Amino acid sequence: MTSELTIGMAGSGGDGIVSAGDSLMTALALAGYHAMLTKSFGPQIRGGESSFRLRVSTRPVLSPGGTLDVAVALNWDDFLKFGGELPLDGHSVVIYDENTGVAPDKIPVTGVKPAEVVMVGIEAMAKNTVGSEKAKNTIVLGLMAGWFGLAPENIRAGLRKRFAKKGEEIVARNERAFEAGLAWAREHPLRHARTLGPAPEGASTKLVTDGNDLCAAGAIYAGCEFFGGYPITPSSEIMHFLNREIWKYGGTMLQCEDEIAGIGACVGASFAGKKALTATSGPGMSLKTEMLGLATIAELPLVVVNVQRGGPSTGIPTKSEQSDLFQAAFSAHGDAVRPVLAPINVADTFPITVEAFNIAEKYQTPVIILSDQEISQRKEAIDRPDTSSLRVERRRVPNQQELEHYVRFRITESGVSPISHPGMKGGNYLASGIEHTESGAPTASGLVHSKMNDKRLRKLGPLKSRADLFLTEGPAHASLALVAWGSISGLALEALQLSHRAGLDVKLLVPRLLYPVAEEVYREFFASVKRGLVVEQSHQGQLYRVIRMFVDMPAGVESFARSGSNPISPVELVERLRSQARELLANREPVSQAE
Amino acid sequence: MATSALPRAAEAFVAKDFKSELKPIWCPGCGDFGVVQAIYRALAAIGRPPHEIAFVSGIGCSSRIPGYTTAYGFNTVHGRALPIAQGIKLASPELLVLVAGGDGDGFSIGGGHVAHAVRRNIDLTYIIMDNQIYGLTKGQLSPTSPRGLRTASSTYGSMEDPVNPLLYVLGYGARFVAQGTPADMGQLSKLIEEGIRFPGFAFINVQSPCVTYGEPETQLKAQKQRMETLESLGHDPSDRIKAMELAQHYGEKLHTGVFYRDPAPPPPYSHYVAERQGELRDDTLTREHILDVFLPRE
């Protein structure tokens, strides 16, 4: 019995790899397991190679995992194309199709000797049982269920449901294929048998979702009534989801002619008093930037999701990167500060989106959510988000008395002034990108400009003490530290657990609020720290540099930054921390005791 | 059935109810003074109170115009008035939404948005103040400047043909297309009023001269000599092909009046939005329900 398994599978486009991954995921979620499913494709629009990796566990899954416990290759050419994403080691079980014509002792994997290599006539079995090689993926599901105990009942039920529309004949064929795989596995037990243990007693059915869909759901929960946007990888699913759901909640959406119009329509909807969302990726962000500045100076609430991908320019549209932080924080001209939030995993996209709307509404500002391709498109089986602690805020509108002598941009102590919208009698005002007086009249006065900049920046001051927008783990007085954000934080959490097991005195900080930099939170965290790593998937180490702009980080804290599409493993983080701990000892720097 | 967000009960308004206290930055004699007056008159005739009107513009001399009205104004960024106005109208379909800007704002930097506003047919009235020059930036070529025009950015003469705003929108299927001039205030305010009353996207090109950088033949005095009303030519505004023929003369002749008015306009975009919401809206759904879509289904 094992409490978790990491399974990888690769084949060519027509092999149904993705649907096999989805079937497994659904079956496991119904059984109450936690799981994380990442899919990877070649650059082709259709066809080409595809793969998935699925990590299933009786506990919450923090990262896609390292080397595979189980690897399935429908053909070796395709499998090898995903080399770094589907790594093997000495404990892996490798299952591959006999039709590849490769002998088990000749598989084209170099540098490791898997624990067990099993050749199965997958294609032959598909042809024999149902007369079509299309059923290869269903054969594999049978094998998985048989060898690893992956919820066979749920897989069966799932197949029936999935193929119901195609008629009884197709359902029956797939059932036959599944049973054939299952029987074959039972007749040919593995030498290194491993079966997934049962989900915890009373484990509830999990929700299956990804970071794009759950972000869109968060927007609906927050009361978003308008979406405007333009298709772009890897964020389009946010538009797809809202296009299906927003009408049911009384909202509307518009696929616009370009990225600028997408955010423009949202700025308009917000001016009209509605909560609005747009979503894009790096290139779209570049185009939307002027409009963000308009929302800042006109003090209009607005939420913009940037699902980051490799850049600059078109970069690598299908791979994750965390290289848009500088852009998110600094791309505006003029003295504009806009809040930047980042979810730490799929589940977090829900509360972070609600929070983004709350901040936008409360402070009348655009807010950027920096998601990333990894979070946005990987599927997770997660517990239903706890909504009992979520509040939904609305912008402060003027009351009757304030409307009698309404002054839209009144300078207040907090910087926030009540905001009216068309339709509200007495609230009439001129919104503009031009600097304006308190009443909204255009001005070129340096004095007014300075006061207005101060008002707009002052509004965001309270964010800097939002310690609740930070995740901290580990002993408070640790001398070693990890700092990570976005999808990388799962790896960092795992590295933290591994380093505690290795006896290292480490703590972890994960900012969900990236900008403005919460100086006090960082100062407090770094007080005990002598060495550490700021881990991120960008070439320059953008978070590391942004923190250093505002905080005197201990000199021993280094940037651990790597361009997107290059995996970072928890193990290498632990290794780096271990050598930092050795440096501390060698320098006789006092190391505080782990608590 | 085509509907427009138009007057419920007409309250009694006069032009000056729509005039704000802000003093225009325009040069004395600027054509835009006439345009804003015509807008006041049209709005008074329509009878919607100022707080139910959203007036959106881009950037340029003429784009200052919302501030000179008592409506909710939004002086946005260069070239982007249309997308913002569409967002306003979709978010609050009950509002009367006006959009205005110059020829550069609409047909150069914002040119990409015009086609889509036309084909989407959201109920907006788009007023272009066309002066064939960039005034705010002190006299450069605009997209409607005639070939050969010498300006600060074309010392030796323009080597390009101008955009024809009338043909442009007619080509994309605009259903209400008119041209006016402050040289005929009565006609101009009527055209604007008619555009507002039209259900769907309405386009009004106004020959509004720049007194500082404009050519002598574009000034109001010269316009009065040149202008010919389409009515006097016996034009039938329900004839789209004829409208396109007449629109060919943009730049040579000054035709004013309604070029084209769809005699049987289809419902505007917001009608379909309301229809879809009516079909799909489910008031029994609380926000919590959105998470149910993620329950795994066998």
Q: What would you note in describing this structure?
A:
The complex is a heterodimer of chains A (595) and B (298). Chain A is of the alpha/beta class and 595 residues long. Chain A contains 19 helices and 21 strands. Chain A folds into four domains: 4-187, Pyruvate-ferredoxin Oxidoreductase, domain 3 (3-Layer(aba) Sandwich), CATH 3.40.920; 208-382, Rossmann fold (3-Layer(aba) Sandwich), CATH 3.40.50.970; 396-459, no CATH class; 466-586, Rossmann fold, CATH 3.40.50.920. Chain A has helices at residues 17-30, 76-81, 122-130, 136-148, 152-164, 168-187, 211-221, 236-245, 259-271, 282-297, 325-330, 349-363, 373-377, 400-404, 446-458, 488-501, 519-526, 542-550, 570-586, and strands at residues 4-12, 34-41, 49-57, 70-73, 93-97, 116-120, 207-210, 226-229, 252-255, 276-280, 302-308, 340-341, 366-372, 379-382, 430-432, 470-473, 480-484, 506-511, 513-515, 531-536, 557-561. Chain A has an eight-stranded mixed beta sheet. Chain A has a seven-stranded mixed beta sheet with strand order 9-8-10-11-13-12-19, with helices on both faces. Chain B has 298 residues and is an alpha/beta fold. Chain B is globular. Chains A and B meet through helix 1, helix 5, strand 7, helix 7 and helix 9 of A and strand 1, strand 2, helix 2, helix 4 and helix 9 of B.
